[in-house]
Design goal:
- Helices cover about 70% and strands about 0% of the residues.
- By secondary structure, it is mostly helical.
- The chain has one domain (about 5-360).
- The chain is globular, with a radius of gyration of 21 Å.
């Protein structure tokens, strides 16, 4: 019987709150935004949000993929592969499809209204074209689920070839954990170098850029690897504090270099070796550092943390349109940028929690997702 790891609950709860903060703050960054990733920039900006968004973006998704690989491996040990596929289909594919079909048009309409588009309900707005492909299907903010579906298929193949047994037998001598973290870091850097990007991010296309997929896949597979090592959680716990310190040093270097690039009036999104290297180091160190601290200090379940963790999936699916709606409201006021940010953040959290409460009651405490 697999024992529940409550530190994962804490991480899910924190990552969910950071996700909302990330989406609430991205429109207030000083940096020029990639129009393929975010479609609106507010007239009020502050450099604080560049740092906040950079910090959250560095480790949030990689840490999630590590946990997902770990937990999914436990599922394969408990259920047959057909049962796991059935659970993944119900848990990932159906919610993803419903979100794309139902939420997608609403998201694009709200973005169009934010930009002042008077024809916000046109077909081109609801299903925007991209790279010569009209009316493309975008995975929008649920690209994470799409990646997990792809990774689940890879995971099934690995399980069929007994990859778990291979990981258990895999010998890299003493300090195996630090050596494996080094290998992971090199793989991430290799993906970014091939992609000519400074950091990992999700691709919203159904045929996403392979370095993006592979870059996150290595974190997922590393989660599988850890699930097959008896001392894995102990090692993460042991090095958690050190990794957070190293991650902070790496992030400071990343931020300082980013500010220098911005001062030179060069696009901060342009590929830069120092940005790529420091970003990769911060990503790996922070992901395992914060997980290590959670394993070390969160030893007794908290009711609020448990509630948010159990509700995190539904909150993730429904928070985005709510956030865009309140962001649209904030645009109509000449508020201080921090007032706008906290208005969007707080109202989104409250609105999402209210809908979550209604959802739970509607399904009598046994929601389907």
């Amino acid at each position: 019987m697999n024992q529940r790891i409550i530190a994962f609950d804490l991480m899910r709860a924190i990552m969910l709150l950071l996700l909302v903060a990330f989406h609430a703050g991205i429109s207030f960054m000083n940096s020029e935004l990639n129009p393929n990733l975010w479609f609106f920039k507010d007239s009020s900006t502050h450099i604080f949000f560049d740092g906040l968004i950079g910090f959250i973006h560095t480790f949030r998704h990689p840490a999630f993929f590590v946990i997902s690989g770990y937990v999914t491996h436990q599922m394969f040990q408990k259920y047959s592969w057909k049962e796991v596929l059935s659970k993944r289909f119900k848990r990932l594919f159906i919610p993803m499809l419903m979100t794309i079909v139902l939420m997608g048009p609403l998201v694009y309409i709200l973005f169009a209204q934010l930009k002042g588009n008077v024809e916000a309900f046109s077909l081109e707005v609801i299903y925007p074209s991209s790279e010569g492909h009209p009316y493309r299907v975008s995975t929008i903010y649920v690209w994470f689920l799409y990646y997990l579906l792809l990774f689940s298929a890879v995971h099934l193949v690995l399980e069929r070839f007994a990859i778990g047994a291979f990981f258990k037998r895999f010998k890299i001598g003493v300090n195996w954990f630090l050596k494996s973290v080094l290998i992971l870091t090199v793989l991430v850097m290799g993906c970014l170098l091939a992609w000519q990007e400074n950091s990992l991010f999700g691709d919203y296309h159904l045929n996403p850029a392979w370095p993006s997929v592979v870059g996150y896949l290595v974190f997922y597979i590393f989660g599988i690897f850890l699930a097959n090592r008896e001392e894995a959680l102990y090692k993460i716990r042991r090095f958690g504090g050190l990794f957070v310190i190293l991650g902070t040093v790496s992030f400071v270097v990343y931020s300082a270099q980013g500010m220098l690039v911005m001062k030179e009036e060069v696009n901060a999104m342009r590929f830069n070796y120092l940005l790529m290297i420091s970003s990769s180091l911060a990503t790996v160190f922070y992901s395992f550092g914060f997980l290590g601290l959670a394993l070390k200090y969160y030893t007794k379940q908290n009711k609020m943390v448990s509630y948010i963790a159990k509700s995190s999936y539904f909150l993730y699916l429904i928070h985005f349109p709510i956030l865009l709606y309140f962001l649209k409201i904030s645009v109509g006021f000449e508020w201080n940028v921090f007032i706008k940010f906290f208005f969007v953040l707080i109202t989104t959290c409250i609105g999402s929690l209210i809908l979550n409460s209604i959802w739970i009651k509607a399904w009598r405490n046994n929601p389907p997702i």
